[in-house]
Amino acid sequence: MTEEPFVDLVAAYAKSYVSDAGVKERYCKASVSDFSEDVAGQIERAAVAVLERRENVFVTGPQGRGKSYLAAALVREIGTLIASSAKRIERVQVTGDVGNHFLLHGRDKDEWTPSTEWVLVPKALDELRESFSGSDATPQWRGLTGVSIVVLDDLGGHKVTDWTAETLYTLIAERYDHVLPTIVTTNMSKKELAQAIDARLVSRLAEGPQIVLSGEDRRVHHG
Q: How far is CA 6 from each of CA 58, 116, 132, 136, 178, rounded to the nearest angstrom?
């Protein structure tokens, strides 16, 4: 049986990484190559910042400029970097599971192999609020506080209340304290987020790369 080329296995691992993160179908094929040279370089540097220095990434710009698509491309790039650092990649079959699974051989024992989870913030906040059984219920985002990398998509796209502000601050502060990277997409600038939600939240997100998207509305232009 012919062994798969290493580059194909890296691509397959990255594709699986995006799927496992829960990236939405509309964005699951996003890659660095879809962007201009300048923006692609920013995505590549952001992926290194996340993996090597565990920094946050702040993606901002007007509505429709491709922020979520860029975040998905960043997730793929993170998966690509993880796989590329292996000396050998092995596909494995798991009984009863039709998904793709891989073993990465030859990575340094100190190299980080993080998992990533994609969260649409407005939807997640609505589901969290609806899960409460009473007024004394405590927000439970404990699962997200321990995930290696979290993408908070459309931060600020929700109704801002004292509860949402405190819920988001608690999540981001706990992740910050444990040096777990958070990737944020938002229509707001850091100043606008600080005024609308919480300056403490923004100060924790500010330590890391910022990617600003401008130009035409991709949704209108691409139909």
A: 32, 23, 48, 53, 34
Place of tokens 């777990």: 180
State residue 136's pLDDT score: 40
As a whole number of Å, the CA-based R_g of the chain is 18
pLDDT score at 142: 63
Tens of pLDDT, residues 189-207? 889 888 888 898 899 888 8
Distance in angstroms between the alpha carbons of the first and the last residue of the chain: 44
For 58, phi then psi, to 5°, come to -115, 115
Q: Contact 125/154 with Cβ under 8 angstroms?
A: no
Strand-by-strand arrangement of the 57-60 sheet: 116-120, 149-153, 182-186, 57-60, 210-212
Nearest CA to 208 among 173, 189, 182?
Answer: 182
* 73-77, 120-124, 159-163: which is most confident: 73-77
- CB 86 within 8 Å of CB 105: yes
| C-alpha–C-alpha distance, residues 116 and 139, integer Å | 21
